[in-house]
Give the backbone structure.
Amino acid sequence: LAMVLAGITVAARRVRLDALGKVQTEATASQARTLHVFIHENTKSLYVALQGNDVTTCWLHGAKKLDEATLKRLDEAWATMRADDPRVLAMMDHPIGRRLRAYQVLDEVTKELIVTDKYGQLVAASQKTEDYYQGDEAWWQGAYADGEGAIFIPQIARDPSAGVWSLSICFPIFHDSEICGVAKAVMDVSQWFYGANDDVGMIQAGGVLVDETGEAVYPVNVVPENRLADWDGAITTFTDPGWRVTSEGMFEGYAPVLLRSHIGTLPVVAPRWMLVLRTPEGVVMAEVNRMTWLTVVAGLGMIVLIFLTGLWAVDRSIGRRIRWLESAAMK
């Protein structure tokens, strides 16, 4: 009976884990798809908004490259320029700048928009930037792609100009099939990723996006040493969703955030992310543990009852024999 009781307990624990694992996996995969759709649709709408626009292409197509000395002086002075400096005002009041701010008003997630010419020189922005020359920035070079053009999405990072943890979407602007400018949109990650408030059934799970090494990219410092434990096995393949229990006692559902390889004819160059929903195993198994104790108590009670019943039966049988012997002796 004890062995049967132990088997039932182990089986109940496994069934509960499997059931919750499937729920956690489905919830994580659903949210990963939502993130994919959000990023894709915002990228597509931004890209389309700045393509084939007569004002934009007209202003960018005729851009002139500054000589190196002038560009260096302007770039060095830009960071400390006052907001009312004529050169800053020219950037802010530019027709493209007004268009960017109008777009930003309609989209609360987008915190900053930047447009440069094909030389990396700042043309317009929704707000004052840290630098004037953008051509030496990784985001600009990724989107320009040696003149071929690409949708370039850098890793999530804190943006000093926008003052938020951001996902930047960077892309070229074309005029007659040639790149005439490069644009960047800075989106506030906290506006579309609610990692700390993901409910999976009746359990609250903390969400985190990790990169290909298992390091948390957003939010940061929510896992020990900012890196997932036991970074090996199926979770590292970035192919299928699943679930696992780590050596540090965390119940994790995971799913890759898969972006499309192209938007139109442009390749999409972006990091790979894994969305992970995490809950302490003790929380997940609280109900199982409660049922386990009830099962153990009931089982022990059953064992005691059987023992006492057997003891009573034996005692009654022995008493009956003793009385028979006494009766026989009296005769």
User: Anything to note?
Assistant: The longest strand covers residues 164-175. The CA atoms of residues 237 and 247 lie 19 Å apart. The mean pLDDT is 83. The first helix runs from residue 2 to 49.
